[in-house]
């Protein structure tokens, strides 16, 4: 019987290249109740690659961050999970990534092509750790979620995360929120959650325990503030804090990483295109901070036209 407490109803979904320590920290500070690491290869854990130190949770976020592993070999998944499980909330298996490089090796959503093998991987993971979850899609090329759900429950998975699309769909169409959910284990829904209203509707339609937000949080961590839009001052403060965290983690390379977030942080703002173009060339974190201070200052005084 599980005795662990679920971390809440709304979390930051795993995103390779996005949900690093600085961004997780921002989202957790603003109200995300839990977060995921980026997906980490089970094989790379077994090889004890140095790079994994960057991916794994830091000690202070241990109780809020789920470690996501990917791989296709039951033994590798189980052994890697044993090594990392104490470093985070628990270990999650990626059974949803549709990227060719991952699927080709039978990992990610590639696991959904062979349900018997999928079951073996889950069984090995389950047997290796105290608690675990699986993040999956509705199926490989059709909605087979009922079958997937049964396998996960039979094998004793503690929590299920599901992106309401098939692997073949990639990101096309709308994510389904009305999905099979008999309520045997906590289920969290993922896909197309961009606003606080989406959070509420997705939970209502699915009967899920909660949601995890991915693209809707990039440059918009305020989605975790329950629908409250940030003021210009708040927006600038978070941008600067994010940049500080990036600098602490990566030095000035943080300025390059921040480029992935610029579109989000400036979405729907006046002169967004101009500021984006300008900051994409900036190479230091200090310079970036100055550019954003300047931009938000003029945004506030409504004198932006003179600034560009
Ligand atoms: C850039 C990017 C990277 C992602 N990386 C992962 C990953 O490492 N592991 C995973 O399970 N899902 C990954 N996903 C899928 C998301 O967690 C999520 O399920 C999907 O994007 C649908 O949610 P959304 O509409 O809120 O973006 C990624 C998505 C994006 C956009």
UniProtKB/TrEMBL annotation:
Binding-site positions, FMN: 14-16, 68, 135, 163, 214-215
GO terms of molecular function: flavin adenine dinucleotide binding; tRNA binding; tRNA dihydrouridine synthase activity
Q: What cofactors are annotated for this protein?
A: FMN
Q: Which UniProt keywords apply?
A: Flavoprotein, FMN, NADP, Nucleotide-binding, Oxidoreductase, RNA-binding, tRNA processing, tRNA-binding
List residues of the DUS-like FMN-binding domain: 12-292
What is annotated as the active site? 97 (proton donor)
Reactions catalysed = a 5,6-dihydrouridine in tRNA + NAD(+) = a uridine in tRNA + NADH + H(+); a 5,6-dihydrouridine in tRNA + NADP(+) = a uridine in tRNA + NADPH + H(+)
Any idea what job this protein has? Catalyzes the synthesis of 5,6-dihydrouridine (D), a modified base found in the D-loop of most tRNAs, via the reduction of the C5-C6 double bond in target uridines.
**Which protein is depicted?**
tRNA-dihydrouridine synthase
């Amino acid at each position: 019987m599980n005795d662990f407490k679920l971390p809440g109803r709304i979390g930051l979904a795993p995103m390779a290249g996005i949900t690093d320590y600085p961004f997780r920290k921002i989202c957790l500070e603003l109200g995300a109740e839990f977060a995921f690491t980026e997906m980490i290869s089970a094989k790379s854990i077994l090889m004890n690659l140095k790079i994994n130190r960057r991916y794994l949770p830091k000690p202070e976020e241990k109780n809020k961050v789920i470690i996501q592993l990917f791989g296709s070999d039951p033994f590798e998944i189980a052994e890697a999970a044993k090594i990392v499980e104490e470093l985070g909330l628990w270990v999650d298996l990626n059974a949803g990534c549709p990227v060719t490089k991952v699927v080709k090796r039978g990992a990610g959503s590639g696991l959904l092509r062979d349900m018997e093998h999928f079951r073996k991987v889950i069984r090995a993971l389950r047997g290796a750790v105290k608690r675990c979850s699986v993040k999956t899609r509705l199926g490989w090329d059709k909605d087979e979620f009922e079958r997937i759900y049964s396998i996960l429950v039979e094998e004793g998975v503690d929590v299920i995360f599901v992106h309401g699309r098939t692997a073949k769909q990639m990101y096309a169409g709308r994510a389904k929120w009305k999905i099979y959910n008999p309520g045997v284990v906590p289920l969290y829904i993922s896909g197309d959650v961009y606003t606080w209203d989406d959070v509420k509707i997705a939970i209502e339609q699915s009967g899920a325990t909660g949601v995890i937000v991915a693209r809707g949080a990039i440059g918009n961590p305020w989605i975790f503030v329950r629908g409250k839009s940030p003021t210009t001052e708040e927006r600038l403060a978070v941008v600067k804090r994010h940049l500080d965290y990036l600098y602490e983690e990566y030095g000035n390379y943080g300025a390059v990483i921040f480029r992935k977030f610029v579109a989000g942080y400036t979405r729907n703002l006046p002169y967004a295109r101009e500021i984006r173009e300008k900051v994409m060339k900036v190479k230091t974190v200090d310079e970036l901070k100055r550019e954003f201070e300047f931009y938000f200052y003029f945004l506030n005084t409504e004198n932006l036209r003179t600034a560009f």
